[in-house]
Structures are given as C-alpha cells and as structure tokens.
Write a structure and sequence with these properties.
170 residues; alpha/beta; 51% strand; DUF6764
C-alpha cells in the first residue's frame, strides 16, 4: 500500500514538473537573445521580439551589448574605450559608455531595472541594477536607488549599494 502512495505522489510530481518546464518554455516566447559587438569604427543594431541591442565603437575602441531578457542593452565607446552592457531581465535597460581608455560594465539582473555606467580617463565604471533598481556610475560619481542596485567608479573613487533598507555610500 505504501509503495502505491509513493508511486502516485512521484507521478504527480513528475507530471507537475514536466508541465512547469513546458510552461516556462512557452512563457519566454517574446524574449530572444540578441548580441551586438562592434570594434574600431563600426556599429551594430539588432531587434528580435521584445529584445534589442546596439553597439557602436570609435577607432581603437570596442563595444559589446548582450540582451537576453526582453529589454535593451546599448554600449558606446570612443578613444580606446571598452564598453560592455548586459541585460538579463524583462523591461530592463543596460547602458554602457567608455572613452579615453576607460572600461565600463553595465548589468541588469532583475525586471524593471536600469543600469548606466560611464567610464573615462583609463578608469573602471560598474553599474548593476536588479529587481526595480537603478544604478549609475560615472561623472561626477555614483547613485543607487530602488530594490537592488550597486555601482562603483574608480575615477571618482565612489561606490554605493542599495538593497531594500540597506543604503551604503562613500
């Protein structure tokens, strides 16, 4: 008797799990991954479903924008800069800019997030936006707000972290 109950429960879990996996496969129909890479005076734009990316690089520069979540990723660089924008969530935007040998990383990990990173003068700039968070890193410093956000800028020496009621700045 006990083995029949276990078998029935296992069957219910297996059917439910298969249904959930199948449902996840159908639910992501609008978001399709797009990748835009540009170097040395080139630019690329792509739109696929609800996802879009753009990358533009000046002479001697590189820009990479990856969009995998149904939002927007844009990277622009010039004068030897290296800009990287990665969006992984629906309705979010990752924007990265880099100039004068700077390197920027803009990453969104949660829905309705915004991350903006602007690197300059050989410095590094990082902005991460998660679940409704907004992160900014660049001139004149950093800003973090919303549900989750983190940012750091080596040129200004500033950093911040916002996670619920935790709000840290320097």
């Amino acid at each position: 008797m006990r083995s029949h109950r276990f078998a029935a429960r296992a069957l219910i879990v297996a059917v439910g799990g298969a249904g959930a996996i199948w449902g996840l496969g159908l639910g992501g129909g609008g978001a399709q991954a797009v990748i835009c890479n540009a170097t040395n005076g080139h630019e690329v734009q792509q739109i696929r479903g609800t996802s879009g990316c753009g990358a533009r690089a000046g002479v001697g520069s590189s820009a990479s924008a990856q969009e995998t979540g149904g939002g927007t990723a844009v990277a622009v660089s010039d004068r030897g800069g290296n800009a990287n924008a990665i969006n992984q969530a629906p309705g979010s935007s990752a924007l990265a800019g880099a100039t004068t040998n700077g390197t920027s990383y803009s990453i969104t990990t949660g829905p309705k997030a915004l991350a903006v990173a602007q690197a300059r003068v050989g410095g590094y700039s990082v902005a991460i936006g998660g679940w409704g968070g907004q992160a900014y890193s660049g001139q004149p410093g950093v800003a973090c707000s919303g549900g989750f956000a983190a940012a750091a800028d080596t040129t200004s020496g500033k950093a911040c972290l916002k996670y619920g009621s935790i709000d840290l700045h320097n």
